[in-house]
Amino acid sequence: MRRILFLCLAALLTACVPLPLEPDRPPPAARVETGPRLDTQTSAANFAQVVDTMEPVITSECRARAPRSNCDFMIVVDTRPGLPPNAFQTLDRSGRPVIGFTASLLADARNTDELAFILGHEAAHHIEGHIPRRIEQARTGALIAGALAALTGLDDASVERVAGIGAEIAARRFTPQLELEADRLGTVLAWQAGFDPERGARFFERIPDPGNAFLATHPPNAQRQAVVRNTLSRLRAGGDV
Ligand SMILES: [Zn+2]
């Protein structure tokens, strides 16, 4: 449990920059059981095992795929009671990647494969540079929307408002693509560490399906599971992913 810090989110928030990625939050509804819930001791032991096994893999893949990135991951658990199951990736002020799990997500995970897949997915967001890419996408959206608004002769305050809306829409439209990319690399990372990503992705069966909702931040669950299956068959065939 060397790198696992149990802390209150208050401390985390003061240490971290604002979170530009949507948390990977399964809202509470439409639950499908994919195994019995585990007791607290087993959940904690599973998490410790997953972190110990996954951390060297995500660090070395980060160094290989993103040599200019900070690959010194900090993995934290938010133990405040009452938080929904949730995981996220962000950067602290020094640019160090932080991966957070709520305690309720640890309690909700049915096995180590689910925890490994989720940890791999969050690490993938950092390795693939999704925070800067999403910021860049928002900036472009703001520029385009602002320029179009200015052409219509709106006043400066209105142009600024439209640019803000353009930034939000551009970032949200981009997010499902990033989620699928993180699912793909998350599958690779979990597989390399010896876990079963297909079993891990059964986690999606317990979360509500956003379907093809307009501006949904997450892709349809079936699409996510298909990405995991396809990536896994390429890995099993010895292909490059
Ligand atoms: Zn994600």
Explain what this protein looks like in three dimensions.
The protein is α/β, with parallel strands linked by helices and 241 residues long. The protein folds into 2 domains: 4-127, 2-Layer Sandwich (Zincin-like); 131-236, no CATH class. It has 8 helices and 4 strands, in the order βααβββαααααα. It has helices at 9-15, 40-65, 103-108, 112-127, 130-151, 156-192, 197-200, 221-236, and strands spanning 4-7, 74-78, 87-91, 97-102. The protein has a 4-stranded mixed β-sheet. The longest helix is centred in the last third of the chain and has 37 residues, at 156-192. It is globular and about 60 Å long. Residues 1-22 and 26-33 have low confidence and may be disordered. Residues 24, 121, 125, 179, 182 line the site of zinc ion (ZN).
How do the helices and strands follow one another from N- to C-terminus?
EHHEEEHHHHHH
Structural class: alpha/beta
**In order across it, which strands form the biggest sheet?**
1-2-4-3
CATH C-level category of the largest domain:
Alpha Beta
Bound ligands? zinc ion
Radius of gyration (Å)? 19 Å
Overall mean pLDDT stands at 83
Distance between the termini: 30 Å
CATH level-3 fold name of the largest domain = Zincin-like
**What about the largest sheet?**
4 strands, mixed
Strand content: 5-15%
Number of strands: 4
Poorly predicted parts: 1-22, 26-33
The backbone outline, from C-alpha atoms, is globular
Helical stretch count?
Answer: 8
